[in-house]
Amino acid sequence: MGRKFNKRGQEGKKKGGKVMDAAQLARKILNFLDNNFGQEFNAKQIIKKLEIRDSLTKGAVESVMHKLAAAGSISKSPRNYFASIKEPEFIEGEVDYVNPRFAYIRPDAKYEMEEDILVKEADLKHALDGDKVRVMVYPSKGSTGRIEGKVLEITKRLRDEFVGRVEISPRYAFVVPDFRKMHHDVFVHKGDLNGAEHNQKVVVKISEWRDEDKNPTGKVIRVLGKAGEHEVEIHSIMAEFGLPFEYPKDVEEEANAIPDEIPSSEIKNRKDMRDIPTFTIDPVDAKDFDDAISYRKLENGNYEIGVHIADVTYYVKPKSGLEREAFDRATSVYLVDRTIPMLPERLSNGLCSLRPNEDKLTFSCVFEMDENADVLKHWIGRTVTHSNRRFAYEEAQENIDNQEGDFYQELTFLNELAKKLRKRRFDKGAVNFETVEVKFKLDEKGTPLGLMIKERKDIHKLIEEFMLLANRTVAEFVYNRNKGKDTFVYRIHDNPDSEKLETFANFAKKFGHELKLGEGTRVSTVLNRLMDEIVGKPEQNVLEQLAIRSMAKAKYTTEPKGHFGLAFKHYTHFTSPIRRYPDMMVHRLLQHYLDEGKSPDAESWEEKCLHSSDREKRAADSERASIKYKQVEYMALAEEKDYDGIVTGVTEWGVYVEITETKCEGLVKVSEMNDDYYDFDEKNMRLIGTRNKKIITLGDKVMVRVVNTDIDRRTIDLEFADNEPKQKRRK
Fold this sequence. Notes:
Blueprint: H1 9-15, H2 22-34, H3 43-49, H4 55-70, E1 74-76, E2 82-84, E3 89-99, E4 102-107, E5 117-120, E6 132-137, E7 149-156, E8 161-168, E9 173-177, E10 186-188, E11 200-208, E12 217-226, H5 230-240, H6 249-256, H7 264-268, E13 271-272, E14 278-282, E15 291-297, E16 303-310, H8 312-315, H9 321-329, E17 333-334, E18 339-340, H10 345-351, E19 359-369, E20 375-386, E21 389-392, H11 393-402, H12 408-427, E22 437-442, E23 448-454, H13 458-481, E24 490-492, H14 498-510, H15 523-534, H16 540-550, E25 555-557, H17 581-594, H18 602-637, E26 643-650, E27 654-659, E28 665-669, E29 678-681, E30 686-689, E31 695-697, E32 701-710, E33 715-720
Parallel strand pairs: 13-20, 14-21, 28-33
Antiparallel strand pairs: 1-2, 3-4, 3-6, 4-5, 6-7, 8-9, 8-11, 9-10, 11-12, 14-15, 15-16, 16-19, 17-18, 19-20, 22-23, 24-25, 26-27, 26-32, 27-28, 29-30, 30-31, 32-33
EC number: 3.1.13.1
Catalytic activity: Exonucleolytic cleavage in the 3'- to 5'-direction to yield nucleoside 5'-phosphates
InterPro entries: CSD (IPR011129), CSD2 (IPR040476), NA-bd_OB-fold (IPR012340), RNase_B_OB_dom (IPR013223), RNase_II/R (IPR001900), RNase_II/R_CS (IPR022966), RNase_II/RNase_R (IPR004476), RNase_R (IPR011805)
């Protein structure tokens, strides 16, 4: 947080402002007119707008403007009003509403603009975060040194419903939104409260927002309940991200009408693998078993490993209600205390789930492999299978570790194969993105009793490797069929942007880790070395998260590109159709090609890919929000003590610190740091004390205490332990 100085300085106080020469004045006038394209100004207005105070420069303004007009640099009206003649650029993009004062517009990819466009709040035309807008870009950069613009039209609202807390006064009411990027309270007439009471959480729908109104007007459409209660807060997150609360009645009825029995005619059309030893391995609390593995030794000494996936598309037909709902949801969402499934329970936990001791319809990749994990041949097609055993991850790992129990020999051998597949993948350039995952232990009311860090063991990696093998095999099979010309759904991951990598390298350096990214260096090797270095260190979580953010985002597309992170030339998602719509798309296209069908038009499939990628982001954002809510609640209930932490971010308004013990991040506000006045050094991302010269920078190990938690905003306020303690405030 830097000091504020008088813009005029001492010279301005004595002489009424700095005198400009004609060239300086001309540049200033041109820049101002360009940035106010479409508006006319006379000399008096220009003097006022440019805050010209000295009499000599004031007297020169009109003359300079006439000379600019005579030279054709600006236009002049008969009334002596002047305007810019430059043509602005018009683009479309998405709003990133940073704070109440301004937003950035991220231009659509087709414009190939390297910089986002800054738009001041007064020029946003009431556009909100995530809205699609049409923008007029000013010809010259503004006083901020950035490209600036003005919203002309909102082409698509991302949302018109918001979750927030009702504040009721005698004559009117407001809903204060929880969403941090919604910077306007919503005015609600008393008659539109829908029974909501003061301080309750509600969903409000914006009904009107006139140009002249500072705040939108809305109506309460759903009362969620008392703020702070677990169920209310989870429902708030669901409503905030537009997650569904229930299935349409017709979809539930359609699911319930599907018969339990598999027709014998269907079994005859499939490869029957029911006699081969088969098992599932999933989390202990899972109910939707997407995948199973079969194992047997062949007479020729090789091994047959089958990856069997629930055949969801046998039950979910195109143009059905189930199909419509599955497409709309596109993915299951895993909040901190519940799953919001893509498919109704009748399918996800019943008909499609590969439960033990039941015949199931599956889509399979069957591999013949040798003991070196080389795939000698493979077969892809529809099957009927029968799981002999359902394992939880922990149970299967114990059988390997103790060398006893059901299928321990098969599990041990599969683990050896998986390790070889994994090593081969990393040798070819895969990146080892291991992330720290926090899981909460909740009581029956949803209150967090404790948290634990999920540990990835060999058994998790075993399942991962065989699923990756199946996904890659399916993608390569379709690609090789017609050299990539057949329409298909791929999961792609572009190579990282060199600039983002450099930024990440500079960040890692502040934690004491050197990344050598010179020409000819293999990026994956450098990143993997770093990931190995930071295991068990306080900075592990933050650097893993930042490494992932510095990468391109994986997405679904019909373009047959590669996957950088996995080091695969072609990759898809085939193995989780119960919880991901793209896998259903893959199953349909795959069977179409197995039946020797012609390639369909790619356009409609690409639209579905875009929708699926958007829904994937929504799911990830809502999952993070539910974890953050529980982190805030957990820290509100946690022991009042000083915690070890690590500085993960430095801004002019404060220092972000991740508490090492709980992986919860909070903010130490600069305004609350009472030991000194701190200046923000933006270039080096650090704060420097004016008197004591104390430096606070990224990677610093610090001690902090919690001073405030806000459930609504999902924020944790901290202070440094060496600050003078303040009374703890919680809400």
